Amino acid sequence: TVCWLPSCSVSSNVIEKRYFQYCTSVADTCINEEGFRLFLKTYLEVEDFPVDLCQRLFRSFQNSEPTREDSVFLKDVSCYFSLLEDGQPRDKLEFAFKLYDRDGNGVLDSSEVDRIIAQMMHAAEYLGWDVSELRPVLKDMMTAIDADSSGTVSLEEWVEGGMNNVPLLVLLGLKCWAPKAEPQVYFIFTAGLGYVSCCAGCKYTVHGRCANRNPAPCTRTYVKSKKETGVCQSHDWVSGNCDSRKCDKCQKKIKSLQGLTGKHCVWCHTMRHDDCADQEPTECTCGQLRDHILPPWAIYPVIKAQQKTASLIQLLMDKLNEHLFIIEQISAVPNTHPLLVFVNPKSGGKQGERVLHKFQYLLNPRQVYNLSNGGPGPGLSFFRNLQDYRILVCGGDGTVGWILDAIDKANLLVRPPVAVLPLGTGNDLARCLRWGGGYDGEDLSRILKDIEGSAQVLMDRWSVQVITDENQEKGDPVPYEIINNYFSIGVDASIAHRFHTMREKHPQKFNSRMKNKLWYFEFATSETISASCKKLSESLTIECCGTPLDLSGVSLEGVAVLNIPSMHGGSNLWGETKKGDTKGLTSQEEPEVIIDPEILKVTSQDLSDRRLEVVGLEGAMEMGQIYTGLKSAVRLAKTSQITIRTKKALPMQIDGEPWMQPPCTIHITHKNQASMLMAPQGKSSGFFNYK
After folding, report:
1. Which fold, 462-678?
2. Average pLDDT value for the chain
3. N or C: which end of the chain has fewer CB within 10 A?
């Protein structure tokens, strides 16, 4: 198993000497945990080594290879520690060759190549790659390195093939980014008509067996020093992918021949004939998406200050705690608003993964983050010193809440506004902000232009505290501590809880939108018959800013507390208020609580008024009528603070996440306001007061 480690001053010769001294003439030495600790003490020249760190490292080397119980291959351990050395990839490749050449005959035979492939498979699993179809790709890659098709790989073939093979370098742990290194190349392994590798940055695509024969490296994504920032530079041309379009220089069609014809710029996406590419203007302006893009000349690397006396053990500990030694800094381009993109690849089936790759192509890959790899922290840290930037969240309402929580915890100097690209179903918050109920494959360039023309609005966020009564058994965990959309008790939460429970038990029955809707309809129908939350007013009390609500006059099966004018995928529970009826009071002039039915009739909702709307639900049948727009819920109150006390176990939900809660007291208070981006009018049909 290969792990990523910082560079240190141990030379290749020292590693090689110590290794061969330690296991002279033994092809496949195995060591147990005690032997592993002895190796570390000898190798690092220390008297003692932390037991917990030793155990963690030892477990990382254990794999499915047939070794003695509780042992690891010393050869793998030594190769792992070769990553600590300073030096060039060529030297490291030569060292790795000697490690895997068991018989020392100067060539790698098929069994030794299989051992290298196994090592790379373990590295891919460690990196979180999908390895289900990776082994054939690696076999093709290793076959291509055997240039003379002799069935063995010589040292010369190994070094020459490996130097141009980025996936191999990465999977062997030899492609380490240092200040003098080229920028990282982003590769995507896909299966189509054969195995191919596609660069997410420039879309250059090759067979797996051709990866080691690719041309010049992918376009750079940053410059090497701060001196180079701020200077607009020339186009970064990539051959092909012009699809018979017109040349932006001569306006003639770029004819497709048998080969790569024409060139396109990675940043501004302008297209030209090969002969026109070198003509003026040669400077790249980043095109129509200039406002969003972080061009290479806006990013430069900085080495974190380190104590020169730091021990190698400390370096290992720091790396295990994910403390990086090289960080990137941004020198913003004037009059632009760089876009920080977060994508949840699990949202919307495979939609998230496709959107991730498209944004990596349209923007700088360094400003697009996969939330499955470390969450939002790295992206927020990278952008934290910028004064004027935007965030785009690609995912559902839960993903948006995740990002808003991360922004709170990051203590940013500037709180950036957040836009939403809705993936999957529901997406009530995205609907209210005019971004729609779900992404349907629209051109992402158009969405980026909509973000450029969007308006900044504030959205209230609320803290919810659930205190279970004494002498009560602990119920399900409360899913969230913050309300962004809504909170509800009763009939709708009961349906959602049954749906959620069934989906967890039988996920195979919930693998399509149509099946989900049918199941939801079935649970709603059975809830109509059973009326499990009938006479809800007898099971709870509600106080708004200390004023009790009188629930005796209405027969309710559910209560909902609303922050936004959309619930359950577009239902307007509060209902629309005619513009002529609105009182027109500002949030400062509006009283802390309104419970008068006549005033509530002419009171509208607002995302930023620091108020919550409380409505009553009469039953599952009425919920269906609300969903179709035939009626609205019963308006009960508008308030800035709510306390709810329940007398029996009831189903509840926060922003679509249900749970069963024993008797408790619930306090809902204002937390803060998040800066959001509302799409321009015409982006979608609009909702309620946001048309």
Report:
1. Tumour Suppressor Smad4 (2.60.200)
2. 77
3. C
